[in-house]
Amino acid sequence: MADLTHGDDADAVNALRSAVMRLGRRLKHQRVDETLSPTEMSVLGTLARCGSATPGELARKEHVQPPSMTRIVALLEAKGLVRLDPHPDDRRQKVVTSTETAEAMLEESRRKRNAWLTAMAEGLDEDEWAKLRAAAPVLEKLAHL
Q1: Which of these ranges, 13-22, 23-32, 92-101, 106-115, has the smallest mean pLDDT?
Q2: If you average pLDDT over every residue of the chain, what do you get?
Q3: Mean per-residue pLDDT for 12-28?
Q4: What is the residue-wise DSSP string for the chain?
């Protein structure tokens, strides 16, 4: 295992953190619907990846408190982006499901962000592009640890 506290490894971690944060901020600006907060977009993305969930499950996945998730879900429901259905096993709970409108908006958002990232990547040479392709699965793993 690498020593992430000293020398070249620490410098690499610092550079990675800085680059990922800058890139993330720039990608966040490539939204289709400017009325949605980054948190609302993240919740819709979680529903797209993981499927329907209770507000409590969404709160855990999004690392927010349950009352905050309840407010976020209410906002998304008011915008027609999610629907609340009765829980099949527990009548006290609801299940949050994204709507077709949300799915179409997410697809358009992905398309816009991918187009922007593709345009940025055109500035890379073939060796840099090969390294980026090789790094993508590692970055994906880090994102989900």
Answers
A1: 23-32
A2: 90
A3: 89
A4: ---TTSHHHHHHHHHHHHHHHHHHHHHHT--S-TTS-HHHHHHHHHHHHH--B-HHHHHHHHT--HHHHHHHHHHHHHTTSEEEEE-SS-TT-EEEEE-HHHHHHHHHHHHHHHHHHHHHHTTS-HHHHHHHHHHHHHHHHHHT-
